[in-house]
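2024-03-11 09:14:02 DEBUG pipeline.ingest accepted 1 chain
2024-03-11 09:14:02 DEBUG pipeline.ingest length=189
2024-03-11 09:14:03 DEBUG pipeline.predict start
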Amino acid sequence: MCLDPDHHPDRAEPPGITAELVLRAAETGGSDGLVTLLVGYLRGLVVHGCHCVIINPLDRPEVYVQAVLIPGAIRIESVGRGYLADSGHELSGDQMLTFVTLGWLAPPDPLADPDPAWPRNWWREVSGPRHLERAVLQLVTTLEVHGIADDTPLTVSVFPTDHQDWSWEPDPTHPCGGRLLSGPPAPGL
C-alpha cells in the first residue's frame, strides 16, 4: 500500500488502487469486530490524506458501500436502486425504509430527475465525535440490509484522492450538519 505523503500519481489520470483487502466479518468476530478493524484501518489512512474506500462482496459485485475519508469527516454511500435494477437484487420497500431509518438520504428517482449532478446512491456525510465509528457501523449494517452474510468475503479497495482536495464545510441548515466540498488539487501538490 502506498501511503507516502510525498507520492502523487499523475494528475491526468485518477489514482490507482493502492490497497485491496479481503475480509470476512465471521473471521473478525462478527459485525462488531469488522467495524473495529475497519475503523482502525481508516484512522491510519486519514493521517496520510484523503482516501476513497469501496467495500463490496466478492460474490455480489453489484452491491457496494463506499466512502470519501478526510480528516474530521467522511461521506458514505450505498449503491442506489438505479444501479441494482438489472441485477435481480433490487432494494425492496422494507430495505429502503430501513435505509431511511439508518439515516441514509435517498437518491432522486432518475426517471423523475435525470440531472446527473445529483448523487445516484444513498448517501450521508458524517462529522463530529466518533464520526468514523458511526460511519463504518452504518456501512457494515447497510451490507447486512443488502443480505450480505458474515461469512461472505468482502473486498476493501482503497485509493488516495490526490486528484482533488476535499474539505468539510459546517452548515447547520444541511441535513448532515455540513457537507464535503471538492475542488482541484492545491497548487504545488
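2024-03-11 09:14:41 DEBUG pipeline.report Strands lie at 19-23, 51-57, 65-70, 73-78, 122-127, 154-160, 165-170, 178-183.
2024-03-11 09:14:41 DEBUG pipeline.predict end
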